[in-house]
Write a structure and sequence with these properties.
alpha/beta; Double Stranded RNA Binding Domain; Arc Repressor Mutant, subunit A; 5 helices; 6 strands; globular
């Protein structure tokens, strides 16, 4: 049996965003041109706006871009990824609006969660970068340990716009000369 996914395009202040659902949960939210665009959706997608979860995601994004702080838990999310990535994405969902966390901080939390002494911040960075539900699962709120704005699959300028939109104190953050962001 083939899984069928439904998609709709949402026009945001950042440009076109593609929202993908399995009709029950959100499976992906990607900015146009984003690295790893639709990479977790292996099956066919059908353009179809008249699905409740897609409408709910659009309303969530409307409130977000209007300056609101909608709760992630308002939406049923089903990002596709292994157990490690899922645990990283769960931590991302705990980052409050207006705040940032470092890759190293997430690595410490993951290590503790799995009963390990250490965890690689680079491995965490890979999981953060492959987050298939951009904006809603706030991977843009992750920064380097020194305050560098790096590693956002949607592009560094988009990351800055999202952080500014959320009124993050940007005074200690900077764009590195050689960024891993696309």
């Amino acid at each position: 049996m083939t899984d069928l996914f439904y998609k709709t395009d949402y026009i945001s202040p950042l440009g076109k965003i593609t929202i993908v659902s399995d009709a029950e949960s959100i499976a992906g939210v990607w900015l146009e041109g984003q690295k790893y665009f639709c990479n977790t959706i292996d099956e066919s997608m059908m353009e179809y706006k008249d699905i409740d979860i897609l409408k709910s995601a659009e309303k969530w994004l409307d409130r977000y871009f209007a300056g609101g702080k909608p709760e992630i838990a308002e939406l049923s999310l089903n990002p596709s990824g292994n157990e490690f990535r899922q645990s990283v994405w769960k931590i991302l969902c705990e980052i409050p609006y207006g705040e940032v966390i470092t890759y190293g901080d997430i690595a410490k939390k993951i290590a503790k969660l799995h009963g390990k002494e250490r965890m690689s911040a680079q491995a965490v960075g890979g999981a953060v970068g492959h987050n298939p539900i951009s904006i809603i699962i706030p991977c843009h709120r992750v920064v380097g340990s020194n305050g560098s704005l790096t590693g956002y699959a949607g592009g560094i300028e988009t990351k800055i716009k999202l952080l500014e939109h959320e009124k993050v104190d940007m005074s200690h953050l900077f764009v590195p000369q050689h960024s891993t962001a696309q």
